[in-house]
Amino acid sequence: MDKYLVPHKPSSQNPSKPPPRWSRSLIELNGRFEPNYRHSVSGLLMESYSELRAFPHLYHINGGPCQTHLNWIDNGAFLYDQPSIGKQGISALDFDRKCMILKLFIARVMNLCYVVCTSMKRNEVFIFDISYISSKPSEVLRTRPSVSVLGSNIHKGLTDIASTSLDDSRILASDTYGVINVWDRRMSAFPCLELTTDSRGTLNSIQLNAEDQIIFGAGKRGFVYVWDLRGGRTSSALQSNKEIRHLPLTSLKLSSMLEKIGPLKAQSDIVSKEIHSINIDPSCPHQLAFHFDDGWSGVLDVHNFEVTHIHCPPPAWLNDPGVSADLLYLRKPSWLPINSIYVVGSSTDNGIHILDFYPDSISPSHVDYKEDVQSLSGVKKQDKQNRFVPLSEELLHVQFIPSTVPS
């Protein structure tokens, strides 16, 4: 309202200046970085990122072609009912928080250093004990066989994997037939529980909440599925070696939720899209980030099941009409450990989008963001905007090395 006020005429006399007031920042007073302060300076962190080095894949090794690359070309396009050739190869990376080694589809918490590997071409989970050198897995877990109506075996490749935070004996893996398989390694090499979606669509990504009580899954059909393992038959199933199939507690169609955002619906046609990845915000556990095949990213608030943030870059096929959504590689974005910053590889350019998904309307990606919102806590306001960091090559997966973060 100040812009409607008529300013006072300056006084002809020089008024005496008030004595300076003693002030100290909250950091100096309590020794802690408050969330609002971290967010206010997060722009400086986002500006600091740049490419250090690229490690290209060598398609010719010792004068001969890379066998993995040849298999990818020869077999990927001809497998019956398989994901497209553009979705073959490494689809996820992670770091062991204890051993600090690079992993492919690793269970996050292990008493020992185990590498856990899966593939979209196989229905097996290979567990390698890297405490000794061996090309053979120390343990192999398998999905239960399924038969189609015509009597043929149904192929179930595995797409993503997770483990419970307190007990490394339980491993979960989503498959290409819309099922999350749950193994108890102490009991059997076959799943003790199958979490089904009542759909044959591929599940690309799964996430466990911090208490290992809620499981989220998402994939090709554009739905986020939620299973609740607290109480009832589902809870006891994890302690039984008898196979149990369980439907989700609820399923959420993200395209329907995006239609509730008036300005977005007015600017774009909202259609159902394949979900490449979902990720829980480590600094704000009720925020579940999602990433679509067309490059859009956003946040689903799992407390009230509303989309609170959205980032909508142009899709890859807008610049190149010959590119189909079905031929795009799966992208796996990642959260920074603090500040609710989400990082995703661009679908159109060589680079990454660094997105401010702070859980408040002061975030530039929030659906209720207002340009004139001022920063709280009296800290000097930084420009709130998302960043794009150009890179030398296309980036599909982002992962940050765990480190000690000050409280």
UniProtKB/TrEMBL annotation:
The keyword Amino-acid biosynthesis does not apply. Keywords: Repeat, WD repeat. Coiled coil: none annotated. Residues 1-22 are annotated as: Disordered. Transmembrane segments: none annotated. Signal peptide: none annotated. InterPro entries: WD40/YVTN_repeat-like_dom_sf, WD40_repeat_dom_sf, WD_repeat_multifunction. It comes from the Eukaryota. The keyword Repeat applies. This is Uncharacterized protein.
